[in-house]
Task: inverse folding
């Protein structure tokens, strides 16, 4: 009898203790509940003008963090094997090394991967043909592209909603646990806007922190100087005619003569505008980190920077939409000597930003 009472009270006490403990943890969870946190994210864009960030999606620390998680999230793809980061790898300045990118089914995409750096200054549309006007529109396209990640937005939402980590992060970033396609797009836009490359040798030279060596300096002058067929000695390569501004892009679509009329199978910008005058035109891409992103051009058809220079020097092909400034150089070519070509390549290599490659703010948060 005595024992029975003892055992019963022991059980009662234990139950009470366990119950208390449970209450405690619940209470703790409630007091430390994740909250909306709109602390702004500071973009370090020294050397660049203030980026034109959309008023309705200003960067916050939590929004950028969510975008970063999503950028490296394989659940965004149909068989959970591929993330944005698979084709936009930090070590290659956010491109891959393939001629044409390979999607989740092992099928080749139609074009060469593009760098996702300095998107904040990209004011002329996204993709080689500019078919996405805003980064937030661009961000949802690879997910649904059957040659790329081949997943539905509904499935992505279902998969992410099952994760407490994601529900919490959506709460911190947007003030609600509810996951929507729009919020996914906005978070990816924030993260990509946060990826900045402004610390190359060339940037340091511009800030007066170092001098370029003699080859790089001659290459720099050639890059920016105008073409002049009458005075070969003074004539430049005029690359900055199109690759201009702090990001080395005029944000326009042009034909740089990699194809003859008959060879143009990818109509590029024409596919978006329907305008025959846009046939075979592609985005003038940034040349930042260009040494890290071979092969080159929208079709990945040029393997090295030396061959790119040869292309502009005397390899331009005629077609109806070939840029007039380039056509003007066709008769005599750019008249570059072997030294000039080497100097141009040396200059292009000063556009590599090694700090970008190791910046942990842009890396996979799970690694
Ligand atoms: C299978 C490889 C692959 C995957 C996965 C992929 N991309 Fe891309 N990305 C590309 C290719 C190829 C292009 C150029 C496509 C074109 O122009 O048609 C591109 C273009 C872009 C651009 C345009 C850059 C510019 O200068 O206009 C951005 C931004 C981008 N991708 C972000 C993303 C995001 C965000 C994701 C994940 C949601 C993603 N990509 C997933 C291969 C990929
Ligand atoms: C008339 C405008 C124009 C001029 C001038 C020009 N480019 Fe380009 N460049 C483009 C366009 C457009 C593309 C993209 C074409 C494509 O992908 O099919 C491009 C692409 C490139 C690429 C490959 C980019 C990548 O991400 O794959 C490099 C490298 C390049 N240009 C370097 C140069 C150099 C060096 C010069 C000067 C010798 C120069 N460009 C002159 C318009 C121009």
Result:
């Amino acid at each position: 009898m005595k024992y029975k009472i003892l055992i019963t009270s022991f059980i009662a006490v234990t139950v009470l203790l366990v119950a208390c403990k449970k209450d405690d943890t619940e209470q703790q969870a409630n007091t430390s509940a994740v909250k909306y946190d709109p602390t702004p994210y500071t973009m370090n864009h020294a050397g660049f003008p203030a980026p034109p960030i959309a008023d309705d999606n200003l960067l916050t620390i939590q929004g950028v963090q969510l975008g970063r998680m999503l950028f490296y999230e394989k659940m965004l793809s149909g068989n959970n094997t591929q993330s944005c980061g698979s084709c936009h790898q930090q070590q290659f300045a956010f491109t891959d090394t393939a001629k044409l990118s390979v999607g989740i089914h092992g099928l080749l995409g139609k074009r060469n991967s593009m760098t996702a750096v300095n998107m904040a200054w990209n004011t002329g549309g996204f993709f080689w043909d500019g078919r996405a006007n805003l980064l937030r529109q661009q961000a949802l396209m690879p997910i649904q592209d059957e040659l790329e990640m081949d997943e539905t937005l509904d499935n992505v939402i279902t998969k992410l909603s099952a994760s407490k980590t994601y529900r919490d992060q959506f709460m911190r970033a947007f003030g609600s646990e509810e996951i929507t396609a729009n919020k996914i797009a906005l978070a990816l836009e924030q993260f990509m806007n946060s990826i900045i490359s402004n610390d190359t040798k060339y940037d340091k030279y511009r800030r007066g922190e170092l001098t370029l060596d003699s080859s790089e300096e001659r290459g720099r002058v050639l890059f920016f100087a105008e073409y002049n067929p009458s005075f070969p000695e003074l004539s430049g390569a005029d690359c900055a005619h199109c690759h201009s501004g702090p990001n080395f892009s005029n944000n326009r679509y042009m034909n740089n003569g990699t194809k003859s009329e008959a060879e143009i199978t990818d109509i590029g910008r024409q596919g978006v505008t329907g305008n025959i005058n846009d046939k075979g035109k592609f985005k003038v891409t940034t040349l930042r980190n260009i040494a890290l992103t071979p092969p080159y051009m929208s079709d990945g058809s040029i393997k090295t920077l030396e061959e790119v220079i040869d292309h502009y020097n005397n390899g331009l092909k005629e077609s109806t939409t070939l840029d007039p400034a380039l056509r003007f150089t066709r008769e005599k070519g750019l008249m570059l000597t072997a030294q000039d070509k080497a100097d141009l390549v040396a200059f292009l290599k000063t556009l590599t930003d090694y700090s970008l490659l190791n910046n942990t703010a842009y890396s996979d948060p799970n690694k």
In short: The CA atoms of residues 184 and 300 lie 30 Å apart. The pocket of heme C (ligand 1) is lined by residues 71, 76, 82, 84, 86-88, 101, 103, 109, 111, 113-114, 116, 119, 122, 126-129, 138-139, 142-143, 148-149, 188, 192 (CB under 6 Å). Residues 5-31 have pLDDT under 50 and may be disordered.
